[in-house]
Amino acid sequence: MRDLSMAALDAAQVQGASYADIRLSHRVQQDLTVKNGRLASVSDDTSEGFGVRVLVDGAWGFAGSARLETQEVEEVVGRAIRIARASARVQTAKVVLGPPVTSKGNYRTPVVRDPFAVPLSEKVDLLLRADAAMAAVAGVTVREGSMEFLKDRKVFASTEGAFVEQEFVESGAGLEATATNEADFQSRSYPNSFGHQQGAAGYEYIEAMRLDAHGGRIAEEAVALLTAPQCPSGIKTIILDASQVALQIHESCGHPTELDRVFGMEAAYAGTSFMTPDKLNALHYGSREVTITADALSPTGLGTFGWDDEGVPAQRTYLIRDGLFVGYLTSRETASVLGQASNGTMRADGWNRIPLIRMTNVNLEPGTSSLAEMIAETKDGVYMETNRSWSIDDKRLNFQFGTQLAYEIVNGKRGRMLKNATYAGSTPEFWNSCDAVGGPAEWRLWGLTNCGKGQPPQLAHVAHGAAPARFQNVRVGILK
Amino acid sequence: MKAVESPGLTDATSLRAFMEVIIERSPADETEVLVTEQDGALTRFANNGIHQNVAERNTTVRVRVVKNGKTGVASLNQLSAEAARGVLARAIEIADLQTAGETVPLPGPAKAATVDAWFDRTANATPEERADFVGAICRGAARQGLKAFGAFSTSGGQVAIANSKGVFHHHRGTQAAVNTVVMGDAGSGYADRSALDVASLDGEELAAEVIEKAQRNQQAEPVEPGVYEVVLEEYAVGELLEFMSYVGFSALALQEERSFMRLNERITGEKVTIWDDGLDLNGIPAPFDFEGVPTQRVDLIREGVAVGVVYDQQTAAREHRQSTGHGLPAPNTEGPYATNLFMAPGSVDKSRLADGIKRGIWVTRFWYVRVVQPKASIITGMTREGTFLIEDGQLTRPVKDLRFTESMLEALAGTVALSSTTKLQASEYFGATRVPAVRLQRFTFTS
Asked: Are A457 and B375 inside 8 Å of each other by CB?
C-alpha cells in the first residue's frame, strides 16, 4: 500500500500537482435480515479501490478506480491532473489549504468481539428470537429485524508527508413491527427510527441492545397505535425522546454549521445555511440549556476516528455554547477562508468519492433534568418518541418532524397514547424554547447511517449524543 | 451513435466469459451472477467557478447461490479470476452457514428487447467539454450579476446478468445530466436537464431558463399558508411520481397492506394516467431487471383508476403470476420498484396552465419530501427556487418558500389540466421520470 501510495504521489507531483493525496480503502459489509419469522437475506459486500485528489494551478481534480494495479494508478493520476487543469478553466479563486498537515500513525476502533468472527448462526438466532417476541402479539402484520456490520481499512497519504492507517468497525441492528388495518398503517421500531441503531464497536454493541427483550413491547405499541386517537393540533409544550432530539440536532444544527454549505458549495443540491459568518459569536441559536459540540473522540460514535480524510487529527470543538453560535464544522479549504485551521471533519463515502465536510459526533451536551421531571413539571403537553418523518428547508430553518409514538401529558402525568404526532417550527425559535435537557444518565449516542450530501451522492455515518429535552410553545399536529 | 467499446468498460464477450466461469464452477443448485460497471465523471460548480471535479471507474460482481434451499449472496468490485473464485466461495459459505429461508425463484431464459441507449459522445465526454459547458452557464449568470451553482455529469455503464437456468442479458447505456441553481442577492432559480446523448443538452437554453427564473424570483414576500390552486412544474411533478412509486406502486407494498393503491378503483382525477416502461427511449431505458427478467410496460393508473403494480420474482411467486421485470439486486427485502415512470401529457401549453386561476401558487420544484402517512399517501416537503403567486392567471410576484403537507391522491384528484409537453428527469440513483407540468385544484400549504 505504501509503495502504491508513494508512486501515485510522485507521479502527481511530476505532472504538476502542487498538492496531492491518495486514499486506499478496503471495506467489507455484512447485512442480515429476518422477516416474518424467516431469514430473508444475508450478504457480504466488499469494495476496494483508491482515489487520488490533486491541486493543479489552484484547482481540484479527483479520479478513482477499483483496479489496484500500478498501470491503473498512473492512468488515474493522469486523469485527475487533466480534470484539475479543466477545473482551472472556470475558476474564480485559487484553492488555499492553509498550514500543511503531516500526521502519521495508526488508529483502530476498540472492539471486544469482532463481529465478522461471530458465527452467522448466533446472529440469526438472536434475530429469530426477537421476531418470535413480535409474532406473539396478535395484530402485527409485518415483522423485520436486521443487522449490519462494517469493517473499513483505510490508508491516507499526502505530498505534505502525512501517512495514516486506520481500521473502523461498526455494528448495527434493530427491529420494526408493523400493524395495519383497512384504513391505517402504524410501525414501531427499536432502538432507533427505521429499525436501526449503529455504533463504532464490535458485536458487544448488539448484545447490549437486548433485541429479544424489546420485540414484544414494540409489537404491542404498533397494534395499539391503530386505535389510538389522532394527536391534537395546537401550540403546546413538547418533550422529545433522546433519539428524536438526535435527529433534530442533525438537521437543524449539524447541517447548517457545515462551512461548505455556508459558502455555497452545496447550494445546488443539499442547500445553503442560515448560519452565515456574520452570525458567528452573535446569534443566540438556543437557550442557555443548549450547548452543542462536534466531538470526533466520543467512544462508539460513528463520527469517531483518528484522523479525518485530509489527515487532520480528530478533535472536540464547540458549535453552540450556552446557546451562542460559536463555531463551524470545517475543512482545510473552508477554514482557511476564515483564517482558521481545519477542525477535522472531512470524510468520504468510500475510495471513489472526495471527502466533504461531514458531521462527526455532533452532541447536545447533557443537562440536569430527567424525563420523569420534565413530565412532572408539564401541565399540558405531548411526549413524542422515535422519528417517523423528517423534512427541513434548504437553509435549515423551517422544519417538520413526525414521530411513531406520542403520549399526551396532562397535569404532570403521562396520559393517552396518540398517533400521527407531528411538530413544526423554525430552528432558532425552537432551540430558544428549550427549557430542559436530560442529564448524563439518560444521555447516549445515536448513530445515523443515511446522512446524504454531495454530487455524486454520498452517505455518511454520523452520530449524535442526546438526552430527552423539553420545548415550549411548539406547533403540534398539522395534519388535516 | 452505435455502441462501441468504451475504454473504461469491459467488452461484453469478456464479461460473459467471466460470468459463465462462475456459473460453471458453482456447486450450488442454482447460481446467478450480476455485473454492473460504470465509468463516469461529474463537474460541480459554485459561485461561478468549478470547485469539485471527479471521475471514477467501478464494477460490482454480485453472486447469488441457492443450495439445499438456503441462499447466499456476496459481492466484490473486481473482475479478476481470483475475485471470481473468492466471491463465489463466499456466497457458498454464507449459504452453507445459514438456516433455510424463503428462496426467490430464479427466472428461466426469455428474450429481452435490445435497446440502443449508447452514445459515444456521452461516454467519451472530456473534462474540458464539461468545463466549457458549465463555464457558459457561469459566464451567463455573471453577466447578469448573478451566481451559478450546479453539477454536470456524463457516464457510460453496463449491466449483465446470467444464471444457471440459461439466462444471459446485457445492456449498456449512457447518461448526461446537468442541474443548476442561479442566485441573486435575494432569491434564486432552478433548472435541470437529462439525456442519453450529451449533444442534445442545450446549455444556452438551460442558462436562459434558470437566469430568467432567478431574476423573477427576487425579493420574495411571504404569503399566508392555506389551500391554493397550484401549477406544479415538471420538476415538482417528477418528484411526486417518485414518491408515489416509493410508497405505492410495488406489489410488496400492496401485499403488506401499506400501499395507497386500491386496484380497479378510481383514486385520482380522470386526466391522470401513469405507467412504467423500461423500454421507452424517451426515458432512461432498462430492458431487463436485476433478476434477469425482461422489463414489461406496466400501466399503474389509467384515467384515474388504479390498474396495476409492478412485480419481481418473489412477489409474483406469492400470487402465482409472472414477474413484470422490476426486481432489484439480491438480496432484496424492499420488493420490486417502478423506476421508469411516465405520466401522460395533456393538451394545454405550459405557459397557459395558470389561465383563469384567480389566486394560486406556481411551484418550480419541491425539496426534502418525506412520507408522513403512506397509506393515506400524505407527504410533506418544501417548495424551492421559484415559488410565485398567481393572480388572475398571471405570475405577479415571488413568494417565500412554503411547506406543504398533502395527500398525493387527493391532490391528483383535483387535476384540472396537464401541459402538452413532457420533460425527462433522471433520478438521483436509478431510473427516471418523464412528466408534464400539472394544474391542481387544491394543494395544502401548512407553513
From this structure: no
- Looking at residues B233-253, what average pLDDT do you find? 97
Tens-place pLDDT, residues A240-273: 999 999 999 999 999 999 999 999 999 999 999 9
Provide the residue ranges of all domains of chain A, joining segments of one domain with +. Answer: 2-227, 234-476
Is some CB atom of chain B closer than 8 A to the CB atom of A39?
yes
Q: Hey, are the CB atoms on B378 and A393 less than 8 Å from each other?
A: no
**Percent of chain B clearing pLDDT 70 (strictly above):** 98
Tell me the per-residue pLDDT of B387-406, one tens digit each, with 9 for 90 and over. Answer: 999 999 999 999 999 999 99
- The matching CATH number, chosen from 3.40.190.10, 3.40.50.20, 3.40.1370.10, 3.30.2290.10, for B12-216 is 3.30.2290.10
Q: Select from B77, B124, B377, B446 the residue whose CB has the most chain A CBs within 10 Å, as the one to mutate to test that interface.
A: B77
Q: Do A394 and B367 touch (CB under 8 A)?
A: yes
Partner residue opposite B55 with nearest CB, options A63, A91, A422: A63
What is the mean predicted confidence (pLDDT) over B39-45? 97
Provide the pLDDT for residue B2.
29
Decide if A455 and B151 are in contact by the 8 Å CB cutoff.
yes
Taking 70 as the pLDDT cut, the residues of chain A under it are: 195, 478-480
Contacts of A268 in chain B (CB under 8 A): 44, 46, 149-151, 179-181, 190
Q: For residue B1, name the pLDDT band (cuts at 50, 70, 90).
A: very low
Superfamily of domain A2-227: PmbA/TldD superfamily (3.30.2290.10)
pLDDT at B97: 79
Which residues in chain B have Cβ-Cβ distances shorter than 8 Å to A79? 55
Give the 3-state secondary structure of chain A. CHHHHHHHHHHHHHCCCCEEEEEEEEEEEEEEEEECCEEEEEEEEEEEEEEEEEEECCEEEEEEECCCCHHHHHHHHHHHHHHHHHHHCCCCCCCCCCCCCCCEEEEECCCCCCCCCCCHHHHHHHHHHHHHHHHCCCCEEEEEEEEEEEEEEEEEEECCCCEEEEEEEEEEEEEEEEEECCCCEEEEEECCHHHCEEECCCCHHHHHHCHHHHHHHHHHHHHHHHHCCECCCEEEEEEECHHHHHHHHHHHHHHHHEHHHHCCCCCCCCCCCCCCHHHCCCCECCCCCCCEEEECCCCCCCCCCCECCCCCECCEEEEEECCEECCCECCHHHHHHCCCCCCCCEECCCCCCCCEECCCEEEECCCCECHHHHHHCCCEEEEEEEEEEEEECCCCCEEEEEEEEEEEEECCEEEEEEECEEEEEEHHHHHHCEEEEECHHHCEEEEEEEEEECCCCEEEEEEEEECCEEEEEEEECCCC
Give the A:B interface size as CB pairs under 8 Å. 252
Q: Residue B251 belongs to what H/E stretch?
A: helix B251-255
User: What pLDDT does residue B5 have?
Assistant: 41
Residue in B138, B333, B367 closest to A40 by CB = B333
Neighboring chain A residues of B83 at a CB cutoff of 8 Å: none
Residue of A46, A89, A90, A131 to mutate for B, most B C-beta atoms under 10 A: A90
Question: What pLDDT is stored for residue A260 in this prediction?
Answer: 98
Please check whether residue A185 touches B, CB under 8 A.
Answer: yes
Question: Does pLDDT of B327 surpass 90?
Answer: yes
Q: Where are the domains of chain B?
A: 12-216, 226-445
Q: Which tens digit of pLDDT belongs to each residue from B402-424?
A: 999 999 999 999 999 999 999 99
Instruction: Give B347 to chain A, closest Cα distance, Å.
Output: 32
Separation in Å, CA of A461 to nearest CA in chain B: 19
B4 pLDDT exceeds 80? no
